[in-house]
Amino acid sequence: MDNRIIGLFIVQMMLIAAISFALFIEGSSGSFASFFSVPSMVLVYGFGGGLTYMRVHLLKDGELGAELKKNLILAGWIGFMIGLVLLGVAMDGEGGQDNIGRGFAASLLTVLYGYISGNIAESFLAKKQILRE
């Protein structure tokens, strides 16, 4: 079996184990649903994938994975900034101070998605480079 598939399985199991430990053993508030946001995923994959697609004609052979990783992480940080703007606007509304923690946590999801998916994409798209002596 391909070592990338095994590595992906290990990464997923360790993430689930870490979240489970924090939720059920340590007693952190929240649930697994706190880590899932369709708008955040769409923003990261759409923005990061779109940037990569716009630049794909400039890439040399074997650079696609590194470029996609860079753009997914960038998209995550841009999503974080968008989330902070939305959080700031929501503070003026009814119950604004009560939404700070939840809004900040939601805005951090894009950064999490960007780093995780960027590193996984790079691992799958990286080409083995032969060292010449």
What structural keywords apply?
133 residues; 0% strand; flat; single chain; mainly alpha
What can you see in these coordinates?
By secondary structure, this protein is mostly helical. The protein has helices at residues 3-25, 38-55, 64-90, 100-125. α2 (38-55) crosses α4 and α3 runs antiparallel to α4 (100-125). It is flat, with a radius of gyration of 18 Å. The mean pLDDT is 87.
Layout of SSEs?
Elements: H1 3-25, H2 38-55, H3 64-90, H4 100-125
Helix pairs in contact: 2-3, 2-4, 3-4
Helix content: over 70%
Number of strands: 0
In terms of DSSP E residues, the strand content is: under 5%
- Categorize the overall geometry: flat
Q: What's the helix-strand series?
A: HHHH
User: From the helix content, strand content and strand pairing, which structural class follows?
Assistant: mainly alpha
Low-confidence stretches: none
Number of helix segments? 4
Can you give me a brief rundown of this structure?
With 133 residues, the chain is an all-alpha fold.
